[in-house]
Amino acid sequence: MVPGGLEAVFLENRDRLLRFLAAHGAGEAAEDLLQELWLRVSDVPAGPVGQPLAYLYRAANNLMVDRHRTARTTERRDREWSEVSGGTIVGVSDAPASDRALIARQQLQRAQAALADLGARVETAFRRHRIDGVPQREIAVELGVSLSTVEADLRRAYRAMIDLKGQFDAE
Predict the structure, then answer these.
(1) pLDDT tens, residue order, the chain (171 aa)
(2) How far apart, in whole angstroms, are the C-alpha atoms of residue 56 and residue 41?
(3) Backbone torsion region of residue 87, taken as left when φ is above 0, otherwise alpha when ψ lies between -120 and 50, otherwise beta
């Protein structure tokens, strides 16, 4: 299927959007933000957009603003928590309770199994990008596939992880 509308404009201007994100403070998160933008663009119902490139730049900027706000909120929350909880108490372990550690190990095993079910290439692309921090272009070269294939593999992995998180939240 040939992409149309916003997807086509996105694909034509992918490099420009990536440079925009990097130049406007996204830094190493530029690829992640671009991936998130792609997910949002691919979910937009088909319909005319007056200035699609301007729309994409605005959406990219909004994603950066959202990420910045989230980071500030997280930092403030962590700082306030440390102030309220008084930090580390001598003689008391900071390690999580054993039941929480067991649950975390079980969830990790389920996540690993979900990734393995997607196939070796998808699992490798996800691990190399999300855990090792390797840019998508390098992963494409390593795997001998196109950049769009790596992006598609990452979308599949992200969807699987989102679905799994939903299961965890429902339990």
Answers:
(1) 445 678 888 889 999 999 999 888 888 888 989 998 888 887 767 667 788 889 999 999 999 888 889 889 988 888 887 777 666 666 666 666 788 888 889 999 999 999 999 999 999 999 999 989 999 999 999 999 999 999 999 999 999 999 999 998 888
(2) 8
(3) left
Type of residue numbered 110: R
Threshold 0.70, pTM exceeds: no
CA distance 135 to 133: 6
For the chain, list the domains and their CATH numbers: 5-85 (1.10.1740), 98-170 (1.10.10.10)
Per the CB < 8 A criterion, the answer to whether 143 and 150 are in contact is yes
Nearest to 148 by CA among 28, 35, 9: 35
Cα dihedral value 41, 44, 47, 49, nearest 10:
-50
Sign of the Cα torsion 74, 79, 84, 85 reads positive
Phi-psi region for residue 27, left (φ > 0), alpha (ψ -120 to 50) or beta?
left
Cα separation, 10 vs 50, in Å, equals 14
Q: How many helices (H) and strands (E) does the chain have?
A: 8, 0
